[in-house]
Amino acid sequence: MSIADYVKKGLPLHEIPVIDCHNHIGLWKAFHIPDPSAEGMLSGMNRLGIDKVCVTAHSSIGPDYHFGNDMVMDAVARYPDRFLGYVTVNPNYPEDMEQEIRRCLPVKGFIGIKLHPSCHGSAVDNTNYTAAFEAAQKGKLPILIHIWGRENVADVDRLSDRYPDAQFIMAHAGGDVLSMGYALEVAGRHANVYVDVAVSTAYEGNVEWFVREIGSKKVLFGTDMPFLDPRPTFGRVGMAEIGEEEKKDIFGGNMQRILDQRAEDGSKDKKRLK
Known about the structure:
Distance between the termini: 18 Å
Number of domains: 1
Oligomer: single chain
Helix content: 40-55%
CATH topology: TIM Barrel
Shape: globular
Strand order of the largest sheet: 1-2-3-4-5-6-7-8
Number of strands: 8
Number of helices: 11
Largest sheet: 8 strands, parallel
Structural class: alpha/beta
CATH superfamily: Metal-dependent hydrolases
Strand content: 5-15%
CATH class: Alpha Beta
């Protein structure tokens, strides 16, 4: 069966590796999440056939990044074959950033860094993030950044030149629709810049547009689960009018390549899917 056939029939997509690059765990303020636990996420993953999720904690982008990173450690330890972790850092505490990165990144299952500048009242290119960018550069690590607006995209444009070995993932593909075209332009010009499809303002044809503009190898599957239900994004990719190989790139092939190229002194979890 084709990938679209699996989606139409509501069957889990077990025929290809599926890695969701953009997820959260735990409660979020003023936003109802039916089951924010690791077990709740696993239920959704199994229903769709998502093999692995790369997670940060809502607490990390909110009140307490230490507590949130510990939540991620717990999920990664209990479900090492299903959860991969991002260490989240807060630019308002730059004196602690390097230490927190050193505490978390060596832990088996941690694979990269997450930044959420808007929740932390910061610009993406804030010099307080220097330790995070340098760690990603040294380890050739993915660094997932909440991107919303042209100013954020412009920051990534500059930073990707400054840190060419860091792998920049622009979450939400730029955020608002007016910024997406600029995000695609930037991702198309830089070998180390990607967009994910966790697009809150998604519309019919956005996956096809991304692939048409920058090719399937620069687009990553991300759902923002459980903040958002993963099924609509899963369906948009699975039913997109693009080739089967392009869908395989997006669903997991591209993220796997990013994980495979990490430096030996980065995360030790080199296990491939399938």
